[in-house]
Amino acid sequence: MTENNTPVNDTSPMETEGLLRGRFAEATDQFVERFTASVDFDRRLFREDIAGSIAHATMLKKIGVLSPEECDIIVGGLADILVEITSNKFIWRVELEDVHMNIEHRLIELVGATGKKLHTGRSRNDQVATDIRLHLRNCIDTISEEGVRLLSGLAILALDHSDTLMPGFTHLQAAQPITFGHHLMAWFAMLERDLDRLQDCRRRTNQLPLGAAALAGTPYCPDRTYLAELLGFDGVCANSLDAVSDRDFAIEFCAVAALTLTHLSRWCEELVLWSSQQFSFVTMPDRFCTGSSIMPQKKNPDVPELIRGKTGRTNGNLLSLLTLMKSQPLAYNKDNQEDKEPLFDSIDTLRDCLIALNGLIPNLIANKEQMREAALAGYTTATDLADYLVRKQVPFRDAHELVGGAVQRAVELNQPLEALSLEQLNGAIDGPIEADVYDVLSLDGSIAARDHFGGTAPTQVRAQAQAALSRLKTRDDPR
Ligand code: ARG
């Protein structure tokens, strides 16, 4: 059993009555108790909840609301609870509704009356907002590390394949020759932007809500700057109503996750195609593939297929949170309890997909021969022939038309363009073609010619991959 995984106890012991129900004449309906509880999923926030409570108690001591002894008792009790949870000794109770009440209740059980002072000047509204922001910030940091690993794996592979030829596609039809390294660096560019977006989201996530209390602030005048320092927040939320109620940072994260998964899904679609027998451009390590229960010959690309499929989750989670937020009047509403499952799911999905690709990408084997043959078979240097004619003063539109004739001839002869003789070429085109045409008609000539910033020439790909690797070295570590 993993930590924090003890079953939730859903019997309703009398001792738990009374923590929130002073003004009620009857106990909570058992179904309502279960329906409104979030402990099943928000217990995941236990570390942040305890860290937030320790910071809150320490701040209350600083402003003179708790004595140093009271603060020590509370902090000691919270530390014991952390041990109980991580060693699976903690009993989670559904009747205590959520992670916050479970921990506070246990604190009172452990340390007695002093524990009842912890919630002074605080509400679960600013408490939960603080917990989620802390949790998301920490998860963003783990995800960023995986992302940077993947980026460097891509750049290293691109360097290895800066002159490996393959067909580039438009409409999934062979279009022009490119290098495999160039293709990989296109993936790199997508993911690098995703990670920039993630860091941007981190800045807005890492703001402290605590001190906003239920919605209006608190008469204890908390030292919020001190709280922010203790918890590693970059700043303090400036409006108490906004602090407890908005979840735009979570929506933003889900948007980043959806977009990143959308990108990863595109790569995975290509990996699925490329590893098929029909393409055979790449071979995936056996340990990343699975067999079929009926067809013994099958080697299925389950990992990229699953990543492609998981995009449905991240895109759905984004829509869930947008919809959750859209009609909420200020300030906190219970609706917000529903923010956690989609957010946690997007966090886990994004992290796991990056981990999976970190295993896969550096171990991808490029089948250079098949890639090259596919580029040759696709008449991918036809544009180069048109460009050659342009240099011989033929207007591009005419050149385009003429080259169509040459391709037709090559199709009839079942040969790649560069295998046609000068007579065959001039016969098809009736043009000023000389022996130097073969420099541009070859795959290598074609890619070498695109030697400009952003082009596919091997020198450019190497420069891009090297620049990318040095960017990764200097990438800001937010912590
Ligand atoms: N479990 C609640 C949530 O996730 C905590 C805040 C509850 N606040 C309240 N006033 N009912 O949002």
Question: What this model shows, in words?
Answer:
Helix 7 runs antiparallel to helix 10. Strand 3 and strand 4 (173-179) form a beta hairpin. This protein starts with 7 loop residues before the first strand and ends in a 5-residue tail after the last helix. The longest helix is centred in the first third of the chain and has 37 residues, at 124-160. By secondary structure, the chain is mainly alpha-helical. The radius of gyration is 30 Å and the shape is elongated. The chain contains 19 helices and eight strands. The protein has three domains: 26-120, Fumarase C, Chain B, domain 1, CATH 1.10.275; 125-372, Fumarase C, Chain A, domain 2, CATH 1.20.200.10; 376-474, Ribonucleotide Reductase Protein R1, domain 1 (Orthogonal Bundle), CATH 1.10.40.30. It has a two-stranded parallel sheet. Strands 3-4 form a two-stranded antiparallel sheet. It has a two-stranded parallel sheet with strand order 5-6. Helices cover 59% and strands 5% of the residues. It has helices spanning 30-36, 39-42, 46-62, 68-86, 99-111, 124-160, 180-205, 224-231, 240-245, 248-274, 302-325, 340-360, 368-377, 382-391, 396-413, 422-429, 437-441, 443-449, 458-474; strands at residues 8-9, 92-93, 165-170, 173-179, 207-208, 235-236, 282-283, 365-366. It binds arginine (ARG). Residues 38, 42, 98, 124-125, 128, 332, 334, 336-337 line the site of arginine (ARG).
Could you write a compact summary of the structure shown?
The protein has 3 domains: 26-120, Fumarase C, Chain B, domain 1, CATH 1.10.275; 125-372, Fumarase/aspartase (Central domain) (Fumarase C, Chain A, domain 2); 376-474, Orthogonal Bundle (Ribonucleotide Reductase Protein R1, domain 1), CATH 1.10.40. It is 59% helix and 5% strand. It is built from 19 helices and 8 strands.
